[in-house]
């Protein structure tokens, strides 16, 4: 008797008991050229310290794990093969925090925010200076869930702290610049978050979500490895 295909969603997505051809297709989709390697090779630089490919998947018993933001595409793929998986939604929902958005969104910002709130997995793309941080503050207030916000520079971390204070009226924590202050809303630089990964994993109960904001192009080994917290 064939085992039931299952898709478990928590801090990542895990697909089990599916045909090997589908697993191979997911591996191919979730394997990217490493831009750092491509650039180094193009200009004749040393490449032995670089991986040619970035693998966004892991093999697990009877299946594969991948970033949960790709869950919808995975379901579409399974549907095309006539497979209806048994879905286990294990995403964390904590007691809400009382937040009020103290601002007014522009038309295009409101459109982006409402579209994001209507989806389980969200990527917001707004041109530089268009107010991505403001939109995200609105989303945080709307969901009322604690979160860890990851940025790739200290300048962005300070900008986020100012915007959270301005639009949500609270002081947030900071992981970076020699500080390790955990609060329901905490800003972290990716380098420092990676350095304290084990501590953050052990304290992840205070967050229901992690929001990588404005990442650099996928080239940094630290950013690509990322920080996995059970949310």
Keywords:
single chain, 231 residues, five-stranded mixed sheet, 9 helices, 36% helix, disordered C terminus
Radius of gyration: 19 Å
Number of helices: 9
Low-confidence stretches: 214-230
Mean pLDDT: 86
Order of helices and strands: EEHEHEEEHEHHEHEEEHHEH
Major beta sheet, specifics? 5 strands, mixed
Structural class: alpha/beta
Cα distance spanning the termini = 33 Å
* Total beta-strand segments: 12
Beta-strand portion reads 15-25%
- Strand order of the main beta sheet, please? 5-6-2-1-7
What do you see in this structure?
With 231 residues, this protein is α/β, with parallel strands linked by helices. It is built from nine helices and twelve strands. The protein has helices at 20-29, 35-42, 71-80, 107-117, 132-143, 154-168, 190-195, 197-202, 221-225, and strands spanning 6-9, 13-16, 31-33, 53-55, 58-60, 63-66, 86-89, 147-151, 173-176, 179-180, 185-189, 209-212. The strands form three sheets. A five-stranded mixed β-sheet has the order 5-6-2-1-7, covered by helices on one side. Helix 4 (107-117) packs across helix 5 (132-143). Residues 214-230 have low confidence and may be disordered.
Topology diagram in text:
Layout (H helix, E strand, L loop, with lengths): L5 E4 L3 E4 L3 H10 L1 E3 L1 H8 L10 E3 L2 E3 L2 E4 L4 H10 L5 E4 L17 H11 L14 H12 L3 E5 L2 H15 L4 E4 L2 E2 L4 E5 H6 L1 H6 L6 E4 L8 H5 L6
Helix pairs in contact: 4-5, 5-6
Task: Describe the structure in brief.
This protein has 231 residues and is an alpha/beta fold. Helix content is 36%, strand content 19%.
